[in-house]
Amino acid sequence: MSTAIGAPGSPRRNLHSLWVLSARDLRVRYATSWLGYLWSVLDPLVMSLIYWFVFTQIFHRSVGSDPYIVFLIAALLPWVWFNACVSDFTRAFQRDAKLVRSTAMPRTIWIGRIVLSKGIEFLFALPVLVLFVVFSGAEVTWGVLWFPVAIIVQAILLTGLGLILAPLCVLFEDLERTTKLVLRALFYATPIIYSATDLPEGFGWLPLANPLDGIFSMYRSAFFAEQWNTASVVASVVWSIGLLIVGIFVFRGLERDVLKEL
Amino acid sequence: MGEYAIEVSGLGVRFRRNRRGRQSIKSMFASASRRTPKGEFWALRDISFNVKPGESIGVVGRNGQGKSTLLKLVAGVLLADEGTVEVHGGVAPLIEITGGFVGDLTVRENVRLTGGLHGMSKAEVASRYDGIIEFAELEDFQDTPYKHLSNGMKVRLAFSVVSQLDEPILIVDEVLAVGDKTFREKCYRRIEEMLAAGRTLFFVSHNERDLKRFCERGLYIRDHRLVMDDSIENVLKTYNADNA
Q: Does chain A have fewer CB atoms within 10 Å around its N or its C terminus?
């Protein structure tokens, strides 16, 4: 009896389970192919290069800050984290239905595991950002201290969204496809290729309504002091905590039905 | 540990009769009350019993009466709509043939994963790994993806891993019926060892001999309710009389 890690249901046991699952995800990601690491950074990298080419070489860019490639990557890497998590939330329970059906542990772990493993992938991709900062000669400001805060707020936001989305996707199959569409729209509604300051008049509400705006503003203030937007950051923190609280209640209300449905 | 290993009181769970006609979002948030929404039926209702540590319980009943559902509720992989299940101590579940293995991962990875999810540290999984493989007789298939194993091998692996868990409560569904005779006998000896070591057993089977071999006490489930809670001999007598 003494050899097990923590008593069943104890925080220590649950953290251990969370880690076992996340570590498995990462092993699948990085160990199954020698290109593993490259794949995880290639997507944001190619996207950055495309936008950089289109907006600096073809069009005469009037948005964002210089150097534009750093401006892009600083938001694209966290966007990839967000996008990958939300896509995975739609199948959080179905993907490992057998394990969910036969392992007694808090079902929230299936959400946390996605946020954690994708978050670690995000951290692993950060050297790419550093590389571009060094070679493009971008200036690092004191705003870099907000970087870890942004990571924490984004993790809270993702957990809240996951707690809402994952159980709903089990109960309503259409939601999976809807989510994909919403994600695509959200990419352009979020200041990634542009900055919130570039929004035309009448769209001033957008940075407050979109929690990602404040989070990306924190990431970007590490290199571009003018990207900091206090109102938007406060709004994103309020949104994230609010969604987490709503998520906890939604999850509690739906958990029973989800388990029957699997 | 308290007086009881498992405490079940007023337990009820309901399922939808068909896949069509999903509930409205509003009704999902309504608290699980006594009323039965349209198109749903109670798979189990008003079930109450207590199990002392070290007891071995056999659950008897015809197919579709809720035996496996009861096991899942005790294992904590299904949540009750009414009533409570309290389980003191961890559960080693052997429910559904798969027992929570992942098809794409190899045998080795699956052992690590399942062990890890049940609180085994890396070092502990490593120290028990050879024993698990040997018991399951899968020495030559350690790097085979789980999905490519035969059904018999899957059961062998599942039993081997779950019986290595240090949990005080063992839950066994009818999975063992699949294995061949020699292996089944091996499993049964292992279960007897575990019982002798003071584990609590919760066992579902249609096989009278197995029930009599392992269990002292029987629970008879008929029409989704617990109709009898007595010694296994008496329960089997009633069950056989009902279905004569």
A: N
pLDDT digits (tens, 9 = 90+) for B48-78: 888 888 888 888 888 878 888 888 888 888 8
- pLDDT tens column, B165-192: 878 888 888 766 666 788 888 888 888 8
Q: Give first-to-last CA distance, chain A, whole Å.
A: 32
DSSP A58: I
Q: How many CB atoms lie within 10 A of CB A141?
A: 15
Question: Whole-angstrom Cα distance, residue A137 to residue B28?
Answer: 55
Tell whether the model's pLDDT for residue B84 goes beyond 90.
no
Burial A144-159 (b: 16+ CB within 10 A, else e): eebbeebbebbbbbbb
Query: Which of B80, B100, B167 is facing A103, going by the closest CB pair?
Result: B100
One-letter amino acid at B220 equals Y
Q: What percent of chain B has pLDDT over 70?
A: 86
CB pair distance less than 8 Å for B100 and A102: yes
Report which of B80, B116, B110, B90 is spatially closest to residue B98, judged by C-alpha positions.
B110
In the predicted model, what is the mean pLDDT of residues A1-26? 77
| Distance between CA atoms of residues B64 and A249, nearest Å | 33
Domains of chain A: which residue ranges?
Answer: 11-261
